[in-house]
Design goal:
mainly alpha
Amino acid sequence: MLKVIGILLIAAAILWKEVPPLLEKKDKKELVVFSILLTIGVGLSMALGLGKPIPNPLDFLTFVFKPIHDVFVR
């Protein structure tokens, strides 16, 4: 639980440092992308901090391309 609190504190510090300049420049698109990436990063970090397994993107690619590979190999 301490890890999750630490991750949230660090994310809050990042928000506190990065968001005001984006709002001053009125960079709405950059703010949206920044928010999405930070949310994904915080979510994955919290899952790791809680000991949950994180799926490997390579497993998805293997699932998608293995049947195609099997068609061409046979």
